[in-house]
Design goal:
Layout (H helix, E strand, L loop, with lengths): L8 E2 L3 H22 L4 E7 L3 H17 L2 E7 L5 H13 L5 E4 L9 H4 L14 H9 L7 H12 L8 E5 L6 H10 L3 E5 L6 H5 L4 E4 L17 E4 L3 E2 L5 E2 L4 H4 L5 E2 L6 H22 L1
Parallel strand pairs: 1-11, 2-3, 2-4, 5-6, 5-7, 7-8, 8-11
Antiparallel strand pairs: 9-10
The structure holds NADP nicotinamide-adenine-dinucleotide phosphate (NAP).
Length: 290
Amino acid sequence: MFLTPFMMKRLAAKPYREKRLPELQKTASELTRALGRKPVLRVIMVGDHAASALYVANKEKLAAEVGIDAATIHFPATASATEVRTAVKKLNDDGTVDGILIQRPLPATYLESEVLLWVAPEKDVDAFHPETVGRMVLGLEGFLPCTPAGCLKLLDFYGYSVKGKIACVVGRSSIVGKPLASLLLARDATVLHCHSRTPDLAAITRQADFLFVAVGKPGLIGKSHVKPGAVVIDVGIGKDAAGKTVGDVDSESIAGTASAATPVPGGIGPMTILGLLENTLESAAKKVKS
Ligand SMILES: NC(=O)c1ccc[n+]([C@@H]2O[C@H](COP(=O)([O-])OP(=O)(O)OC[C@H]3O[C@@H](n4cnc5c(N)ncnc54)[C@H](OP(=O)(O)O)[C@@H]3O)[C@@H](O)[C@H]2O)c1
């Protein structure tokens, strides 16, 4: 039997961003009027990780466009965990700060199990705190983690529903894979969850109507991993041999098999930043209501 190759639709973030930006600008200006100040986001960065510096700059740039006062408090790589924790505590106690984000990676000497608890849950716009994660898993109101929520918002925007479908998530990090699987389950998808110990990865991923990949290994996923007609969401950000930014999915190989896929760059990356700003506005809006 011959299957007609699929014309792969490009699920770019740009059209979503163009629609959403004026809405966020309007919300930000209404909040500025109500609070007598702009919504405030503070980012903590430790050390000089080049990729982090770029992410932080992108966050600040889009925040300024939306009308959010975003600034980064930059510590040298030698700063102690106690010193940084004290700064976060100050931001927690400052009533004029709506959202706080601690940029990862942190120096290896910092204990992630402790850092997770630093940001007060009501300002945890990056959704790392165990209370925030627990609320999400239980389906209670709270901030949603920006990258997984961004994947679902992009699917919503392009008119896809995962309800009753088979979704496969490759990767089980606390910030992408695990919360994404939880959000998909909450949307009535049947979820297959893969990781580095999964035997015969392609045999599992090929069952998926929606395939989400968050691993950090360029080219890991190719045609043999994709069910004909599947929608592929590539969260990965890496570099190919020529130094070009690429995802985990070999987009040339899956063209003709997948019916739609997100580009890298220009897919989930911008959705993540928008999600962070949406969470910051949500946090500021709670102050107006209370
Ligand atoms: N677009 C965005 O905004 C955004 C946001 C966050 C992250 N990212 C990118 O997404 C990627 C993943 O990030 P992360 O923080 O989730 O990474 P991570 O913490 O390193 O987790 C990677 C996951 O991939 C799994 N894995 C590794 N090799 C595998 C293989 N051969 N087959 C199947 N699974 C494998 C690992 O399994 P084990 O658990 O068994 O080790 C782990 O669960 C990175 O490229 C990162 O830069 C992008």
